[in-house]
Amino acid sequence: MTATRNTPVQAAVELRGLRKVHGSGDHAVTALDGVTLGFPSGTFTAIMGPSGSGKSTLLQCAAGLEQPSEGQIILAGSDIGRMNEARRTELRRDHIGFVFQAFNLVESLTAAQNVELPSRFAGRRANRRQVDAALASVGLAERAGHRPSQLSGGQQQRVALARALVTRPDVLFADEPTGALDTVTSQEVLRMMRMLVDREGQTTLMVTHDPVAAAFADVVVFLKDGRIADRIALDRDAGTNNAEAVAARMARMEA
């Protein structure tokens, strides 16, 4: 059930004092430097920042794909840092969905078969009703039997979105999901992601460099040098003014 704007919501993901250091000694590079941040259930958060600011590392750590050097990550009520790799893999499979810039669809499979892949990789029989529901949720119920080559770029990304949603994840992580799409198609995919938050209560965390994409979120968090530099809550009724506000805040941060 989707929480109303006036209803307190719990964090679907919590980052507590997160640090991530690559390398050691003179070659050490701090990608994240003490980030504490919560992502409330049923909300859409965009992460922005200059190249090298740590935004992709934050997403990778929050999703359990990278281990932080210090700090805690609480996801689905569990401390990821206390898990072994097998348990983290299980948690990602059952509680997390991923969408990336590359669609990563298998060309020889239909849209429905691509959506079935998470179940097959987990050694489970795909639930066709869930597959059909996932495709319907992204407006592709009539394209289930089409292969990627028969779909537009936007439709392919929506198949990737359905594949991420078929397990009904607690959190959807999106890394530059519209980076390979043209402006019109990007808007189509972003509206779909926004609708999933509003209608289905899908908690979504998206890394992007695009103020227009970030404007679809409820909150935009800005990173700089591995730290939270700024944060703004967006007015969903503000329309294009949100993109302008995000772009202006980003420009001030980079000045």
**Series of secondary-structure elements, N-terminal to C-terminal:** EEEHEEHEHHHEHEHEEH
Structural class by SSE content = alpha/beta
Biggest pleated-sheet summary: 6 strands, mixed
Q: Just give the CATH class.
A: Alpha Beta
Strand line-up in the sheet with most strands: 6-7-8-3-9-10
| CATH homologous superfamily heading | P-loop containing nucleotide triphosphate hydrolases
Q: Give the number of DSSP strands.
A: 10
Shape: globular
How far apart, in Å, are the first and last alpha carbons?
Answer: 42 Å
- Helical content band: 25-40%
- Oligomerization category of the chains in this entry: single chain
Residue windows where pLDDT falls under 50 for at least 5 positions:
1-8
Which strand-content bin applies to the residues? 25-35%
Q: How many discrete structural domains? A: 1
How many DSSP helices? 8
Would you give the CATH topology? Answer: Rossmann fold
Query: What is the average per-residue confidence, as pLDDT, rounded to a whole number?
Result: 90
| Rg on CA atoms, Å | 18 Å
What labels describe this entry?
10 strands; four-stranded antiparallel sheet; Rossmann fold; alpha/beta; six-stranded mixed sheet; 255 residues
Give a short synopsis of this structure:
The protein has 255 residues and is of the alpha/beta class.
